[in-house]
Design a protein that fits this description.
Blueprint: H1 5-9, H2 14-17, H3 22-35, H4 42-49, H5 57-70, H6 72-78, H7 85-94, H8 100-115, H9 120-123, H10 142-151
Helix pairs in contact: 3-4, 5-7, 5-8, 7-8
Length: 152
């Protein structure tokens, strides 16, 4: 792993950073881009990167369960046609340093536990809902527009 010089100057090494997830690495690099070549404030860097923060499987399961409960009626109605990203977004927001793949895996597990196996209806593509088009106001005839412009 390449470490920018500003990070190396603060006495940190990849082994000592304790960055375990991609969001932590992203946070570290965002902080380093922000400070540029300036000396790194170790405490600010560690806070920005979530150094040492560990999200437990229990925390992930609880956050996923809360997200599912918030949209349970819609999920039960739409079943496997439901956009699970609507559930994933609040979880990743509340658990900033959690590994995204682990969160998705937990979400999938809990959705399957709630809905059960896919049925024939779940395997069919969803019906597209047609939105009624709003009527556009009709433009004034050219003659009326020309007369209005001449009068002005």
């Amino acid at each position: 792993m390449y470490l920018p010089m500003s990070l190396c100057n603060c006495g940190a090494s990849a082994a000592h950073l304790n960055l375990q997830t991609i969001p932590q690495l992203d946070g570290a690099f965002e902080y380093l881009k922000k400070v540029g070549g300036e000396p790194v404030d170790t405490a600010a860097f560690e806070e920005a990167a979530g150094v040492g923060v560990v999200v437990t499987p229990e925390q992930m399961a609880a956050a996923v369960a809360e997200a599912i409960d918030s949209r349970k009626d819609q999920l039960l109605e739409e079943r496997y046609h439901f956009n699970t990203n609507l559930l994933l977004a609040p979880v990743t927001k509340s658990l900033k340093w959690a590994d995204g793949a682990s969160v998705r895996e937990e979400l999938q597990k809990q959705v399957e536990a709630l809905l059960g196996p896919k049925t024939e209806a779940d395997l069919k593509p969803p019906e597209k809902k047609k939105k009624p088009k709003a009527e556009k106001p009709k433009p004034a005839p050219k003659e009326e527009a020309a007369a209005a412009a001449a009068a002005a």
